[in-house]
């Protein structure tokens, strides 16, 4: 059974319609209707025999792109995974695939990953920029945090909604994890990103009540 046939054998048409509403940047006819747990299980099954699929781009269906992202998450060799990620990024056309692309091997190679993150954040392609910010948020807000990273994200000056939303998500998470360094940055942010960052922080269970009280005075 070829891979597309395998995906169609898992099809749920109601879920396809639901997914199309959540991801409006993708035409409805590009959704098969396969749920993420099934795609993750398929990625685990295929991870050692997926080279042909990973090298064949662009894909026809959204679920193929999701499967591609999950396969890269399974990769064990940093040098291979990061190059395959670079190859895949220009083909990402929505937030769901972008945010599902989170290779676990990146956590063990943070120093060499940083220059790539800077480059991704300065790319022209919308979802490459979103991916760069998301990767910085995922791996560099705890022990590997550097205050200058806040400036990297603040310096992204783009109008695309899905980039600005990721900036807000980053700063809300930074307020939860690196409050003292992040609070002064808020006043330097573009107004929409600033307001959305505060809103997301107020909605977060990781931000303390005292910090939320202060943030309410800044709205």
SSE diagram, text form:
Layout: H1 3-9, H2 13-22, H3 36-46, H4 51-55, H5 62-74, H6 78-88, H7 95-100, H8 110-121, H9 126-139, H10 147-154, H11 161-177, H12 179-182, H13 191-203, H14 209-216
Helix pairs in contact: 3-5, 5-6, 8-9, 9-11, 11-13
Overview of this protein structure:
The structure is a single chain. With 219 residues, the chain is mainly α. It folds into 2 domains: 1-108, no CATH class; 109-219, Alpha Horseshoe (Serine Threonine Protein Phosphatase 5, Tetratricopeptide repeat), CATH 1.25.40. It contains 14 helices and no strands. The chain has helices spanning 3-9, 13-22, 36-46, 51-55, 62-74, 78-88, 95-100, 110-121, 126-139, 147-154, 161-177, 179-182, 191-203, 209-216. It is globular and about 55 Å long.
Task: Give the structure's gist in a few sentences.
With 219 residues, the chain is mainly α.
Q: Which CATH class of the largest domain is shown?
A: Mainly Alpha
Residues in helix, %: 55-70%
The gross shape turns out to be globular
Beta-strand content bin = under 5%
- Low-pLDDT ranges: none
CA-atom Rg in angstroms: 18 Å
Work out the helix count.
14
* CATH-level-2 architecture of the largest domain: Alpha Horseshoe
**Number of domains in the coordinates?**
2
Q: What is the CATH topology classification name of the largest domain?
A: Serine Threonine Protein Phosphatase 5, Tetratricopeptide repeat
The biggest sheet amounts to: none
Mean pLDDT: 97
Distance between the termini: 56 Å
Q: Could you spell the SSE succession in H and E letters?
A: HHHHHHHHHHHHHH
Please state the structural category.
mainly alpha
How many DSSP E strands?
0
């Amino acid at each position: 059974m070829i891979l597309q046939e395998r995906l169609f054998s898992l099809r749920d048409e109601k879920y396809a319609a639901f997914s199309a509403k959540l991801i409006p940047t993708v035409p409805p006819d590009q959704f098969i209707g396969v749920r993420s747990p099934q795609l993750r299980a398929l990625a685990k099954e295929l991870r050692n025999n997926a080279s042909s699929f990973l090298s064949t781009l662009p894909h026809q269906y959204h679920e193929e792109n999701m499967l591609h992202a999950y396969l890269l998450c399974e990769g064990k060799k940093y040098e291979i995974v990061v190059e395959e990620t670079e190859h895949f990024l220009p083909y990402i056309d929505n937030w769901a695939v972008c945010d599902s692309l989170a290779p676990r091997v990146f956590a063990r190679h943070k120093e060499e990953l940083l220059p790539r993150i800077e480059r991704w954040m300065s790319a022209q392609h919308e979802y490459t920029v979103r991916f760069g910010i998301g990767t910085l948020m995922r791996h560099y807000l705890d022990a590997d945090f550097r205050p200058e990273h806040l400036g990297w994200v603040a310096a992204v000056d783009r109008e695309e909604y899905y980039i600005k939303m990721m900036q807000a998500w980053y700063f809300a998470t930074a307020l939860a994890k690196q409050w003292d360094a992040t609070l002064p940055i808020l006043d330097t942010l573009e107004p929409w990103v600033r307001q959305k960052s505060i809103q997301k922080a107020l909605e977060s269970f990781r931000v303390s009540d005292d910090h939320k009280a202060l943030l309410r005075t800044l709205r």
